[in-house]
Amino acid sequence: MDFQCIMELRSILFVIFIFFSDAVSAIKCLAYFSETADLPCHFINPQNISLDELVVFWQDQHNRVLYELYKGKEKPENVHPMYKGRTSLDQDNWTLRLHNVQIKDRGSYQCYVHRQGPNGLVSIHQKIDNYLLVLANFSQPEISLISNRTENSDNINFTCASTKGYPEPKKMSFVLKTENSTNEYDALMNIFQDNITELYNVSGSLSLPVSPEANVSIFCVLQPTLTQTWLRSQPYNIDAKSRNTRQLFTDHGILITTLPVLFIVCVTVVSLIVKKRKKKQPGPSHECEAIEMEGEENEQAKQRVENRVPERSDETQCVDNISKTASGDKSATHF
Description:
Blueprint lengths: L2 H18 L5 E7 L4 E4 L13 E7 L4 E6 L2 E2 L12 E4 L4 E4 L8 E11 L2 E7 L2 E7 L6 E6 L7 E11 L5 E7 L4 E5 L1 E6 L6 E10 L6 E8 L7 E2 L3 E3 L1 H12 L1 H28 L5 H22 L6 H21 L1
Parallel strand pairs: 1-10
Antiparallel strand pairs: 2-7, 3-4, 3-8, 4-5, 6-7, 8-9, 8-10, 11-12, 12-16, 13-14, 13-17, 15-16, 17-18, 17-19
Protein name: T-lymphocyte activation antigen CD86
Main location: membrane
Subcellular location: Cell membrane
């Protein structure tokens, strides 16, 4: 028989047992958190007494009034504050409906019916206790991987969590399924109860042996109570190829993590070296400026020498003048 079918059958049998055990002392009523509970009175009115002659009310185990119908009219002023606006009466079957059920509503309830007589109220019906059970369905468990297997071990760490359930869960386990086998491992549960709603959150973690050569599916299973169906997470599938790939990254994780750091360090060092070299290079000194100016002057002088027309001295100019005069005299005598 399938594992899930066995769990569901166990839950059904327990529900039947809890509802029919001790039936003489109390009637079990079951309701879910934030939904509606039916609290029957089982009052039979064979004489067909008019509502104008009846006083009907419900009380909890602390004698707090949930609802009162006084001679056919509701009396909300007599209702305890925690129940105001949360109840309604089905007069056809004398059932009180308690809406928006909370965890704190669990417990015993009694129904009373009195008839108005000449000498006052006379009790004509007092039912045995109705015991209200309140349940809250846990969320579907969620399984996740904490860390991959290490080099020296095939164990893989998993965690599982489920929230907002009631009552306190009984068991959390991990189921490891391969092609050839199915193994269940109990997990140590961490349970937290909300102080206001009284709902439970539960988590658990476990290190599971996973063979590197096998394809596996891992489930997280939560057993809230024997009255509730066991909850199972979606499978976490691991195949040998993908796990080897993850292991490769794990084995070289330090290197992969270090590469960006090394790159940043190298860039920083190179930047510092470049800045240092720039600081060591001297700026233009006065000596260099003088040399440059001297070179410019020499160049200008050189250009003047090349373009310059030599000037004749006064003596040379005088000789030329005499020569020109003598030549003129001769020409004049000749003519």
